[in-house]
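Quick look at the format.
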Amino acid sequence: MAHIVGNGAFTYEMNANWAKLPGHIKFGYTHGVEVDAEGYVYIFHTNAPCVVKFDADGNYVDSFGAEFEGGAHGFLLHTEADGQYFYVTDTQRGLAAKLTLKGEKVLEIGTPAESGLYDAERKFIPTDVAVAPNGDIYIADGYGQNWVHRYTAKGEYIASIGGFGHEPGKLRCPHGVSVDTRRGEPELYVADRANHRIQVFSQEGKLRRIIDENMDLPCNFFFRG
């Protein structure tokens, strides 16, 4: 008998044997799943190799990303003018990276020294990445100092949003970030996990609104439509 999970319009059949892993790969914590334009499924997990590629039927195709072992966390597939790219974060090494679909590194962003917010005790531990239509990159320091840092598409530091606190605009574990483009002007959504709320900012970091009704520990975003 099939095992059904979810409810209402969000009902799914669980298939524990879908992913046909080769013998040399064992999943660690699986922090991300993405599907590319050709329908291939990518799993981002904490054991090496950290990115595993499957076809739609769960057959193993390829793997890469051993350098993210132990720290694999945020995982975004973003479509750009010249193709699709992965944006990932590594909590162990304190960095974010942009990769091709074959795992080639295009860009790496480490601790934002320009911000003046970090030293030997105050570590940068990024948990997620978002990319705006203009190419700006937002990196959430969810496990470190509770900031979201904004960069140009080339990885040049622009500004920081948040900082630790309970007040509107402040953050406690900004675990996930995403850019919503469905309402005209893009908006930055931040899963302010330990404050049990979502905060919505302009691209420049101005607080627009707070969503806190029925919020427990929001972690990440997936957009319907």
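Next, a different chain entirely:
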Amino acid sequence: MHKLFIISALAIISTVVPFFSGCDDTVEFSNTPPGSLSITRNLCYLAVGQAVTLTGEASDADGDSISYSWSAAEGTFSPPDGKGEVVTWTAPAVAGVYRVTLRVTDGIDQTTEGIDLEVGPKVVYIPGEIVLDRTDVPYFIDSVTPLLVQSISTLRILPGVTLIVNKTTGGLRIEGTMIVEGTASDRVTIKPNVCPGDERSWRGIVFSGSHAVGDLSYLNIAMAETGIDARYEAVVACDNVSIEGCEGPAVSVIDSARVDMDHCKVWDNGTGIYVENGIIDLAYSSIRYNGVYGFYMISSGYSRPFDASVDSCVVANNLGDGFVLSQYADPVIHWNSIFGNQTGAGTGFALKLTPYSEYATHTIDARWNYWGVTTEAGVIGQIFIDPEATATVDYSGWLMEAPVGD
């Protein structure tokens, strides 16, 4: 019986195989490759040898599990094999633009996405002249203290250069000469190492000492503690300089320093321009949207000089007062558009005198300005606030229309 059953089974198989021998025995099914690839990073700017965290994101329409792997011709990964949704890539020691590629696979198909990372050189102090001229990658100040340019040295920055400050305590301290040669089409930018939309501060540019000189043209300064800090007889000239997003003053001029500003923009800073026993000359500039004040000026009236003029500028929409004058401060304020300086509660003055010294009987020359009102009574109400102030204000020739705009 067993032998008979085996023979019969073989006979059945022999009849079935020829029946299927002419058919396609492959199995077809569809697969959708991973999609929606994106790469995010925790740093938008990299110095040589600096590490950046890269995060990949993808989806799979079929619900398959996906895996990530990263590759680059240069630099190193952590983990070393470059596998994982999140990796760290350390830039090589040579400045340049490097391509990092992300590959995502579902075990059947793969999709790739790449990102170009600009890696810039670090700026270190070298006696003599330092010239920054590369525009393909940014330069970096990586020290925890401001980079010092001594009295015998010059820092020269050519058009189109970007200078990134890596540390919040870093910045520039100029005891010699700093020359910025930006142009209208190729401005120079100095800012912290943040991606667009993020906030972070750095120390700013400090000019200190009688040998400190600044000649700054078409320069953007962003998110410093103090944008330009001039002190101890330093001399700084600013032409088409923009200072925005600083935590404190955009410009500080103290202790016999001098700052000249022409066609400059001072917007959205913690405070505007602070002058204490210093010299400042502004013309055709815009001082707007700063906190607390547009200008704060103090003169002690002693050995250190005070001299200030604000001519043909817009001083508007500062969240407090336009001008605050203290002690012997007596600036010349001519042909300006001064309006809308007030807090959210509606308090604020175009020009505010704090109590002067009893010997401070100066007359503030504030003629030929537009005060944002249409009646003389309104002008007086905006200017005088403290009845104990002994100085007076000459606002004669006040204008019905704004003489200058941004």
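The first strand starts at residue 35 and ends at 41.

See the schema section for token definitions.
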